[in-house]
Amino acid sequence: MKCPPFDYHRATSVADAVDALQAAGDEGKILAGGQSLVPVLALRLARPAVLVDVNRIPGLAGLERRDGVLHAGALVRHLALADQRQHPLAAEAARWIGHTAIRSRGTLAGSLAHADPAAELPAVLRACDGAVQVAGPSGTRRLRADELFVGALQSALADTEMITGVELPVPDAWGFAEFARRHGDFAVVSVAAARFGERVRIVVGGVAGVPHLVDAGDLATVDGDVSDDRVTLLAAAAADDVDPASDLHGSAGYRRALTEQMTLRALADLAGHLRPVREPA
Amino acid sequence: MKITVTVNGERHRLDVEPRRTLVDALRDDLGLTGTHVGCEHGVCGACTVLVDGEPVRACLMLAVQADGASVATVEGLAGDDGTLHPLQEAFSRCHGLQCGACTPGMLMTAVHLLDTDPDPGRETIRAEMSGNICRCTGYTGIVDAVAEAARRRVTSETS
């Protein structure tokens, strides 16, 4: 369980990191918090020739809310995201990530670039219709959540690109719910719900290769309060809309049932009233 | 690669391979074997140490990343004369350990918990300690120990 050998480059700037990645060809890998990458190395599931450590690049740990959008630097740690009050949905989701000793190192951009479909922050980025700022050899570009996540652990980022910042629009109302077998585990199913004006966006994690944006049609347009009836209909629509696979952690039917329950809870949170039932039926 | 790291207040210069994890550097290069290696992929919590005051899985951090950092390990808890840290005493009194494999990680996690929340309830203790796996005790003694250490500290500070 020791990492295979690699060269190590401590990047001093974004440009320096991109240069190092480019010099490594397709053999380079960004090291941010390392909470997913180092286990992958220890298990020898990957053998990058060069690790480009971005942790000491200055100016990438800022958090600022401007015009209804939280602008977060790539190196914002999960603990800092959980502590901020400018984007409560992101704060709540960050509290569900692993444990304090994981949250102290893990980074926002690292979680997004890793693109685990059961992870919390990719679901939040998509629920908020957020975007990432990306730097690469040919300059910078902006990728929306819909474009960033391509498949399980696959993003649209090139080997020579690096996320430098994250834009998270702040919803008018929000809810988050997750079911995991043990405290701190990846979700079996998680749901992030965000309301922007009359539109409710529901994103389900753990049921597809990417965080799944529920297509609930006209049901997702809400005028005024979100009623109990609407919550029930939307939860049923979410369960209908997902097509989960069966694996060791749960059958497709179980995940579908969890999708309905977690959507009920997330929307009850969003609607501002908690339902008495807190355990899956 | 040459790095400088301060461990329990003492500065060390090390020459490490980039792939060396912090826990291996502590144990094999510095001889500080109090920090234990368990799963080596971030699940068990046995290797938890404090880096610049925050709990970190020392198996998920490379030693080169700790260059210039200040690390606190279980060896730094007891006094120079061998007097146990109040948490160590509480673990002993409450049967918070049996084989001892998880204990260093448990202690360092608990040190950070009580530093940030001097008076945690049992639910908070359980949640915060849940990233550290113990296969002996059934956890009750561990939760008792952290709760007792917190109680004694609050009592001694207010008396």
Q: Identify low-pLDDT runs of chain A.
A: 274-281
Radius of gyration of chain B over all CA atoms, rounded: 16 Å
Radius of gyration of chain A (Å): 19 Å
Integer tally of domains of chain A: 3
- Percent helix of chain A, as a range, is 25-40%
CATH topology of the largest domain in chain A: Uridine Diphospho-n-acetylenolpyruvylglucosamine Reductase, domain 3
Number of helices of chain B: 5
Order of SSEs of chain A: EHEHEEEHHHHHEEHEEEEEEEHH
CATH architectural designation of the largest domain in chain B = Roll
Average pLDDT taken over every residue of chain B: 96
What is the residue-averaged pLDDT of chain A?
95
Biggest sheet: strand arrangement of chain B: 2-1-5-3-4
For CATH, the homologous superfamily of the largest domain in chain B is named as Beta-grasp domain
What is the top-level CATH class of the largest domain in chain A? Alpha Beta
CATH architecture classification name of the largest domain in chain A:
2-Layer Sandwich
Order of helices and strands of chain B: EEHEEEHHHH
Number of strands of chain A: 14
How would you write the strand order of the largest sheet of chain A? 4-5-10-6-7
Protein name (chain B): (2Fe-2S)-binding protein
Pfam families (chain B): Fer2, Fer2_2
Domain 2Fe-2S ferredoxin-type (chain B): 1-77
Organism (chain B): Actinomycetospora straminea
